[in-house]
Design brief:
This protein has about 650 residues and is of the alpha/beta class.
């Protein structure tokens, strides 16, 4: 498909862009500990430029080292020492005819004191962010004036480095947004009170940047179309702010929404529809004449094209899409939509960042590791030698793809009649359809790479030997864990339930295990059954991102279900299960017409000894066959072991 509008050149101020694709700012924690743009960050952004982004906006970039640290290893523009490496970043992006802005940021009350040397967070007023839970102090008038100068200094440093423009982060409940929003601005000085007072902070920043960087240096303002808070910025407020900002002479507006306190509206999990907030941008674009960029949970090039055709935006922000696939734009331009690994909305990227680690992605095992694992680092020494991969789930597909890129003659054997393994089951619960698209993308990538895919083949030692393979990657997945308790033979596994043509109806169903599989299976069954989830731990959801866990729990309980934590299964009986409190040992009974086990899996290693005797250390275990995990773990395992073989 041809996307004429998406690949039409555009302008922001006097800056010419090769297309309408913008990679908006996303925290990546890939800077050096000094705040400089080191080799890893430069490679990360260069790959997105090479992949087709017309404009790249850096991650939240701090302007203040005292109270303005948002993440570990955050990019900084606080002093002139940053210029040299920023210039190298600019050069790396410009090499692909892409442009780059630095996003100027201060977290305000949305940071932890541990990130700022134990100091108290600051804000427009002493309003606490409920998610952070730390009482901030209000900046004095003099401190606000000094903070204006820090934003301006950051812009000057960026300009000196050859960066094409800056973006003021005035959205998402961060410091500038805290001045704009009546939810957080309770000030009585010149920076509060009236609409003009709340706009004064950002106004002075813009005027200062123009004074020092010149009137033609592009300034973008990322702003909220709505806070989605009862006393916050409304859609009407957002339109008024956009018109005011335009009058100040900025170059473009980048529309987003939400704050930490309004939950998932900033970064949408999978249960948000593609394009759900498009009206926020569309109404602002009607009200202003300068270009409008907007993020809208875009997954597909066709949807981005429609946003442009409908006049909702001038430039489309493709955020996590560029994390899942750095070549999103390049593939779209070539009409190879199926080859794009499209964001699942699983929130794993932000869970990893919240743990203080560099950025990672479920579908892209190279993300955050481009410097070490980029395709140009592949040792292409396969020379047509044959390698066999047993198992066509995520780990096996990724291993086969990586081996094929290295020049091996790769044979992928799967005993079922289709690829995907348990990913096909993971796609069945509500809002998980993007997993089906992921499997389709992997199939297309395997075909393009020339992998010999053999379906319906039980790959025992004899079948593998017949291929003449020099090595075997065993990716046979896992087997459900079945506890040794009375009556367990009367239970079924989550995999069996999800694999049925239709779910049961009108039953009391007890699901044992409150991890990812247990909660998603419970949501799937809760619509037409009464569901109880039993979990041994004191929390459910495993490593799922909190907003995803909250949504799943709400959906289960909204349908009349329940979640029982700190309980373990002791027996499956006729019409009931017995559970025991993990602390007291007290037992109780729950009605159960059906018992579903979602207690994890153990490695499946068919014909292991025969394969090991045949191949020795050239038998390589990947995915659940090595160590059980989620799709993230499977893809990383398959990729990394094939990378180093």
């Amino acid at each position: 498909m041809s996307y004429e509008r998406l690949f039409e050149p555009g302008t922001i101020g006097n800056l010419e862009l090769k297309n309408r694709i913008v990679m908006p700012a996303m925290g990546c924690s890939l800077a050096e500990s000094t705040g400089e743009a080191g080799a890893r960050m430069i490679k990360y952004y260069a790959d997105r430029a090479r992949g087709g982004a017309g404009l790249i906006i850096t991650e939240i970039t701090r302007v203040d080292d005292e109270t303005g640290v948002g993440t570990p290893n955050q990019l900084s523009v606080t002093n002139t020492h940053m210029i040299a490496q920023l210039s190298r970043l600019a050069e790396a992006v410009h090499a692909y005819d892409s442009k780059i802005f630095v996003q100027l940021h201060h977290p305000g009350n949305q940071t932890h004191s541990r990130l700022i040397g134990g100091k108290q967070p600051v804000s427009a007023s002493d309003v606490t962010c409920k998610v952070i839970g730390e009482q901030p102090r209000a900046l004095t008038t003099e401190e606000v004036e000094a903070m204006v100068r820090k934003f301006v200094t950051g812009a000057v440093i960026a300009q000196k480095a050859g960066i094409d423009g800056v973006e003021i982060h005035a959205a998402h409940g961060y410091l500038v947004s805290q001045f704009l929003s009546p939810h957080t601005n309770k000030r009585t000085d010149k920076y509060g009170g009236s609409f003009e007072g709340r706009m004064r902070f950002v106004t002075e920043i813009i005027i200062g940047i123009k004074a020092y960087c010149g009137p033609k240096f592009p300034i973008s303002v990322r702003m909220n179309g709505s806070d989605y808070l009862p006393d916050g910025i409304t859609q009407e407020d957002g339109i008024a702010q956009a018109k005011y900002l335009e009058a100040l002479g900025i170059s473009c507006i980048n529309v987003s929404c939400g704050t930490y306190d309004s939950g998932a509206t900033i970064i949408e999990p999978s249960y948000f529809a593609e394009g759900w907030k498009i009206d926020l941008a569309a109404q602002i674009r009607k009200a202003v004449k300068i270009p409008v960029i907007a993020v809208c949970n875009v997954k597909h090039p066709a949807f981005a094209e429609k946003m442009l055709e409908d006049g909702a935006v001038d430039f489309v922000g493709i955020a996590r899409g560029h994390l899942a696939d750095p070549e999103w734009g390049k593939k779209a331009k070539a009409g190879k939509d199926t080859l794009i690994r499209k964001c699942l909305g699983c929130m794993e990227c932000f869970r990893i960042l919240n743990d203080g680690l560099p950025l990672g992605c479920t579908l892209n095992p190279v993300l955050g590791r481009e410097f070490e694992y980029g395709d140009e680092k592949l040792v292409k020494n396969g020379a047509g030698r044959t390698v066999a991969v047993i198992g066509g789930g995520p780990a096996g597909m990724e291993a086969a793809l990586t081996l094929a890129k290295r020049g091996f003659d790769t044979i992928l054997m799967e005993q079922e009649d289709k690829l995907g393994g348990t990913a096909n089951l993971a796609a069945i619960p509500p809002n998980k359809g993007m997993i089906t698209e992921f499997v389709e993308t992997m199939q297309a990538q395997l075909a393009e790479a020339g992998v010999d895919v053999r379906l319906g083949v039980k790959a025992d030692a004899a079948a593998v030997r017949a291929t003449g393979a020099e090595a075997v990657f065993l990716a046979a997945g896992g087997k459900p864990v079945l506890p040794a308790i009375p009556g367990i033979e009367n239970a079924v596994t989550a995999e069996e339930i999800l694999g049925r043509m239709a779910p049961p109806e009108g039953q009391n169903i007890v699901i044992i295990g409150g991890g990812v599989t247990g909660l998603e299976t419970a949501e799937y069954l809760a619509a037409k059954n009464k569901v109880a989830v039993v979990e041994m731990l004191d929390k459910v959801g495993g490593n799922l991102y909190p907003s995803v866990v909250m949504h799943l729990a709400q959906e289960i309980m909204k349908s009349g279900g329940s979640i029982l934590k700190g309980k373990r299964l002791t027996a499956v009986e006729d019409g009931a299960v017995t559970i025991a409190d993990t602390k007291t040992g007290d037992e109780s009974s729950i009605p159960a017409d059906l018992v579903v086990l979602a207690m994890g899996v153990r490695p499946d290693r068919p014909d292991l000894e025969a394969l090991r005797e045949e191949y020795g250390d050239k038998l390589i275990l990947v995915g659940d066959s090595c160590k059980p995990g989620q799709i993230y773990d499977a893809l990383h395992s398959g990729h990394d072991k094939a990378f180093v073989y």
